[in-house]
Model the fold of this input.
Amino acid sequence: MKYDFKLVKTEKNTKARLGHFAYNGVVYETPMFMPVGTQATVKTMSPEEVKECKAGIILANTYHLWLRPGEDVVMHAGGLHKFMNYDGPILTDSGGYQVFSLAKNKKKDITEDGVHFKSHIDGKKLFLTPEKSIEIQNKLDSDIAMSFDECPPATADYNYIKNSMERTLRWAKRGKDVHNNPNQALFGIVQGGPYEDLRKHSAIETVKMNFDGYSIGGVANDDECKEDMYKAIDYSIPYLPEDKIRYLMGVGEPIDIIEGVIKGIDIFDCVSPTRLARHGNALTMNGKINIKNAKYTEDFTPIEEGCDCYACQNYTKAYVRHLIKSDETFGARLLSIHNIRFLIRLVEDLRKCIKDDNILEYKDNFIKKYYGDVSEIK
Done:
C-alpha cells in the first residue's frame, strides 16, 4: 500500500483530529478537502493548477471512467496517474451513487447480485456488481478504492434502510475478497441512515473486515437535512478505529466541513466548488457571492481580499464578471481555482485550530462572518 496514516493530535475541546497522510514520501496533513475530478479531470482546471491550490488527494469516478474511456484504456495508459498526469494521491469512488440514481425501479433493479440500470450516455443496459466495481478500480490503479455500497434515499423508511445496510455489508465482503491490487488501499463504507442502531451495527461489522480506512456514506443526498447528516456522523464515529482515516463522502458546504472536523472526520470531497464556479458563484470568508451581480461591473478588487490563489492574485471581480457574462470558460476556470483554494484554506485554518485547541472559537467567528446568523444555516 502506497500510503500510511498517523493520528498526530486530538483537539482538547472536541473530537477534531490532526493527522499525517504519508504518500510516496510526501506527508499531507488532515483534515483535508479533496477536489473532485469526476472524469479524470477537475473541471476546467489543469493538474498543475490543482496542485498550486495545495490539494492533496483528488477523486475520480468509477462509473464515468468505466463508460468513457473504459477501464482498460486507462490501464493501458499506465493507470490514472499517467493518464491524467497527476502525481499526487487519487481516490476512486465505487460508482454506487451514480448507479443507484439511475436504477429506476429500486425493488426490481437493485438485487443481491448487483444493480441493473441504463447508461446515461446511450441508454445501454448495464449491470454493476461489487466484484465488477473493484475490478474496474483495480485497473484504474487509484491509490484508494471504495467499496460498492447501496445508497438508499434519505426518505426511505427504517426497514428499507436496514435491509440496504445489511446488503452493503455483504457487498463489502464480496468486494474485499476480490480486491487484488497490492498498491491500492480499500475503504469500507458505513451506512444506516439517521438511525443509531443501524449506524452502530454497520460500523462495527465493517470494521471487523479490517479495511484500510472507513467512510460514512448516505449523508450527501439532496433531500437530507443537516440534522440527519450530523446524527449519522455521531452514531458512526465511536465505533471507527482511531488509527485509520475517516472520510465523509460528498460533503463540501463550509459549515458541514467544520462540524464534520469537530466530530472527528479527516477527509471530505464535493463537486460544489467547481459547480458553483460554473454558475458564477464565489466562496469567500464573508459568504458566497454571485459575481454576475451588476455591482461588480466596475469592482477592480480581487474576488477575495487576502486570498493567495492565482485568480485573486492576478484578476479582478470586474474582469471575472465580464468573462462569466460572456460565457468565456476562463471565467469558470478562475472561479474554480478560487473556490477550490477557499475550501483548502478552510481546512488549513482548521488544522491550525486543532494545533492551538481553539476550533470552537473559530467556528463561532466563521458562522458570524460567512452566514451572518446561525438561523441562515440550512
Remarks:
- The chain has 16 helices and 15 strands.
- The mean pLDDT is 95.
